[in-house]
Amino acid sequence: PREYDTDDIRSARWWNNYTSRENSYISQLFCGQMKSEVTCLTCNRVSITFDPFWELSVPIPQRRLKQVTLFDCLRKFVAEEDIGDDYYCSKCKNIKMQKRK
User: Fold this and answer.
1) SS3 labels along 11-62
2) CA pair distance 41, 82, nearest whole angstrom
């Protein structure tokens, strides 16, 4: 069953689906794929999605005494965060606080 596929297989399936509709030299150069995981804090269900992107808006962390590097920005971008009460969990049927990474 598909629910037992590895992330690599799921990612490839979604990427192939996207590139079958949106394939060009420009997309081959500039388009990427991002994996998102959302965890329900009530039942611990993890929902995983793979989405195409053409750009990333990365946050710039505040540093007082040190220069900020691109690596610092990317680390902050991929950090786990609370996403509030606006996520519906299909397993426990609740709208609860969730965590995304």
Assistant:
1) HHHHHHHHHHHCCCHHHHHHCEEEEEEEEECCCCCEEEEEEEECCCCCCCCC
2) 10
Q: Tell me, what's the pLDDT at 5?
A: 86
Q: For residue 52, which of 28, 75, 74, 71 has the smallest C-alpha distance? A: 28
Cβ neighbours for 68, distance < 8 A, ≥ 6 positions apart: 60, 61
* Residue 58 contacts residue 79 (beta carbons within 8 Å): no
Q: What is the mean pLDDT of each run of 10 residues along the chain (101 residues)?
A: 82 93 90 89 85 90 82 89 75 70 63
> How many CB atoms within 10 Å of residue 52?
15
